[in-house]
Amino acid sequence: MTTHTHDYDAVVARYFEAWNADGDRTRAEAVAEVWTADGRYTDPLSDATGHEAITAVIASAREQFPGFVFRLVGDVDGHHDTARFSWELVNEADGSAPVAGSDVATLDAGSRVRAVYGFLDRVPAGA
Predict the structure, then answer these.
(1) Where is the SnoaL-like domain (predicted)?
(2) Given 3.10.200.10, 3.40.630.10, 3.40.190.150, 3.10.450.50, which CATH number is that of 8-121?
(3) How far is 125 from 127, CA to CA, in rounded Å?
(4) Domain residues of the chain, as ranges?
(5) In what order do the strands lie in the sheet with 82-91?
(6) Is the CB of residue 114 less than 8 Å from the CB of residue 36?
(7) 28-82 per-position pLDDT tens digit
(8) C-alpha span between 54 and 114 (Å, rounded)
(9) Residues whose CB is less than 8 angstroms from the CB of residue 20 and which lie 6 or more positions away in sequence, other chains included
(10) Angle of helix 8-20 relative to helix 51-64, nearest 10 degrees?
(11) CA distance 76 to 115
């Protein structure tokens, strides 16, 4: 049996770099670094497979919440090829965090994301 060791904190840090990347090119490069070519991102609002589609989901979220960044809440928990973590979408101007969620990510042998299953724990009223 082959066992792979992952640096879950590093993987999640790269994941947040992709979500917080400014500009289409930088975002696309970050997504390509983090996800496998056939990677999938799914949450209650989206289901995207492949770098282009995942980049578009991230761009849409960034456009919907300008001036906000995604930040890790608490510690990353991981075992085998799976990591779970919580996050908030934070307004850089006032520190408010109207959106929060939890994600579960599966990784390939090279610590690239194969799939993310996202859950929204807190959303603004009317969203």
Answers:
(1) 12-110
(2) 3.10.450.50
(3) 6
(4) 8-121
(5) 46-49, 35-43, 113-122, 99-107, 82-91, 68-79
(6) yes
(7) 999 999 999 999 999 999 999 999 999 999 999 999 999 999 999 999 999 999 9
(8) 12
(9) 69, 70
(10) 60
(11) 16
**Token pair belonging to 42:** 């799914």
Tracing tokens 């934070």 back to the chain, one arrives at: 90
The token pair at 17 is: 């770099």
Residue 14 has pLDDT above 70, yes or no: yes
CA–CA distances in Å: residue 96 to residues 17, 78, 90: 20, 28, 6
The proportion of the chain whose per-residue pLDDT surpasses 70, expressed as a percent, equals 95
